Amino acid sequence: MKNLFKKILELKLRFFTKAILAKYQPKVIAVTGSVGKTSTVEAIYSVLAYNFNTRKSFKNYNNEIGIPLTIIGLESGGKSIIRWLAVFIRALSLLIHFDKNYPKILILEMAADHPGDIQYLINFVPVDIGVVTAIAPVHLEFFKTAENIAEEKSKLIKFLSVQGTAVLNYDDELVWAMKEKTKAKILSFGLQNKADFAASEINISHNLNFQDITRLEGISFKVNDQGKTQDIFLPKVLGQHLIYPALVAIVVGAIFNLSLETIAKNLKKFQPPAGRMRLIKGIKNTLLIDDTYNSSPLAVKKALYQLNQINLPKSGKKYAVLGDMLELGSYTELAHQEIGEAIVEYGVNFLITVGEMSRDITRGAVAKGFAKADCFHFKNSVEAGKFLQDRINEGDLILIKGSQGMRMERAVKEIMAEPDLAADLLVRQDESWKR
C-alpha cells in the first residue's frame, strides 16, 4: 500500500511539473555530481537571486518527489493527506491562474542514488544549463564503479539541446570526458589554467597564522575568464574544494550576462549549507569544522586537506572525528583504510572514529605509523561528543564528518559553544529527524 501511494504520488507530481514548466517556461539550471551539489546550488543562488527572480531546491529535495515540490513551490506533505492536498491545490492554482511572481530561474539539484535516476528526472524536466560537479566513488553498492556513476550523471549533459549549456569540471577526467556527449555549448571551470573559468592565487583568510583560531574566516582567489581577472572573496567559506561551487556560480552568472564585478559582489553572500565545512565556535575557545551532512572517500580527503592547511597556535591540536562512510559496497574496507592513511599524511594529532566500519580507518592509520594511543573509538556520535568535552583544550581544531546515517551532527552539538543555536547552525534539526 505504501509503495502504491508513492507511485501514484510520483505520477501526479510528474504530471503537474510538466504542465507548470510548459506554462511558465522558466530557465532551468540542473546540478548533479557525486559531491558538492547542494553547495553549488547555494552558490549559484547567491549570484543570481539579487538580479533575477530565482528559486532553488528546497533542503535536499533532489529526487523524483523533491524536484516537483520545488517547482510547485511547497514542501513535502509527509504523512499528512491534508498537506498533500494543499500541494495539489497549489499546483492546480498555478495552472488555472497566471502567477506573475513565478520564478524566472529554477536551480535544481538532481541526485542519482540508483541507475536510471537522472534519466527519469530529465524525461519531464527540460534543462537549459546542466552542471556536473565531480565524480567520486559513492553509492557503489548500486553502481559498482565510478565509471558507471559517470555514465548515469552524463545523461544530464547528453540530453541538453543545442541551445543549452553544459558546465563541466575541467579538473575531473570523468566529468570533462562528458564534453563528447553533448551538442550543447560547453563551458569549463577548475583550478587548471586551461579551464574557461580558472581559479588561482588561493588563500585562506589571507593569513593562516592566528593566535585565536576562532577568528578564522574566509577564502580568497582570483578568477580568470578569457584574459579578464577578478578578485573573489568568500567571507563565510573555509575549504579549497568550496571554490568549485563558487566557480560554477561565476560561470552561470556569466551565462546570464552578469559582470564579473557584480558576480564577485553577490558571491560574498554565499555560505555553505549546514553541515558542509561550516565553521562553528566550540567550547573552551576551540573551533569546529562541521562537515557532517554526508561523507564519501573523496570528500573526507578534501576535508582533511583543509584541516592540514590551517596553522594553529603552538598549544593547539587537530582532531579528526570520522564516522562510517556508507553505501560503498565492496570498496568499503579499502576506502576506510585509505582514509586512515590520509590521517597520517595530513598531520592529524588525534583520531576519533564512530561506527563499526570506521574501525578500518584506525587500522589504516596505525599501519602507516599513527600512534594507537591517539586513536579512540565509539559506537555512536553522542558518546564521541561527550568524550571530546573533556578531551579538547583551548586552541584545538576539530573536524567532524560522517555519512548521513551516522548522525555526526550530534557530536557537534555536544561540543559547540552555543548548543541553543543548533537549530540554526546544524543539519537535520527538524522534527522529522528527531523521531
From TrEMBL:
Domain of life assignment = Bacteria
Could you confirm whether the keyword ATP-binding appears in this record? Answer: yes
Q: What's a Gene Ontology MF term here?
A: acid-amino acid ligase activity
| Domain spans labelled Mur ligase C-terminal | 275-403
What keywords would UniProt list here? Answer: ATP-binding, Ligase, Membrane, Nucleotide-binding, Transmembrane, Transmembrane helix
Q: Where are the transmembrane segments?
A: 242-260
The chain positions of domain Mur ligase central read: 31-74, 94-252
Question: PANTHER family from the xrefs?
Answer: UDP-N-ACETYLMURAMOYL-TRIPEPTIDE--D-ALANYL-D-ALANINE LIGASE
Which protein are we looking at? UDP-N-acetylmuramoyl-tripeptide--D-alanyl-D-alanine ligase
